[in-house]
């Protein structure tokens, strides 16, 4: 998923659907080309339909992924990218 996860109205439901689509051993990769902080600041300042579209804190992302049967293998939140890898 390239730069879309914050835009799901119900992120937990979206993760559930994605998890069902993955085969055993499959991976979900969430990628953004800026940090989580920058994503959230950009959306907050937009003042448009994306103003509430936030990328959750790492602990919340782990909880969401675990709830739908995925195991977070990596969360990288660097200045130049955000990457989450979760496996089934």
CATH C-level class is Alpha Beta
Write the element-wise H/E pattern from the N-terminal end onward: HEHHEE
Strand order of the main beta sheet, please? 1-3-2
Classified in CATH, the superfamily is Vaccinia Virus protein VP39
The percentage of residues in β strands lies in 15-25%
Specify the biggest β-sheet.
Answer: 3 strands, antiparallel
Write down the Rg: 13 Å
* Cα separation of the termini: 16 Å
pLDDT averaged residue by residue: 97
User: Shape, please?
Assistant: globular
DSSP helical segment count: 3
Under CATH, the topology can be stated as Rossmann fold
Low-confidence stretches: none
Number of domains: 1
**E-strand count:** 3
Describe this structure in words.
The chain is an alpha+beta fold and 88 residues long. It has three helices and three strands; from the N terminus they run H-E-H-H-E-E. Strand 2 and strand 3 (81-87) form a beta hairpin.
Element layout with pairings:
Blueprint: H1 11-21, E1 27-32, H2 36-46, H3 58-67, E2 71-78, E3 81-87
Antiparallel strand pairs: 1-3, 2-3
How is this structure best summarized?
Helix content is 36%, strand content 24%.
Key terms:
globular, 3 helices, alpha+beta, three-stranded antiparallel beta sheet, 88 residues, Rossmann fold, 36% helix
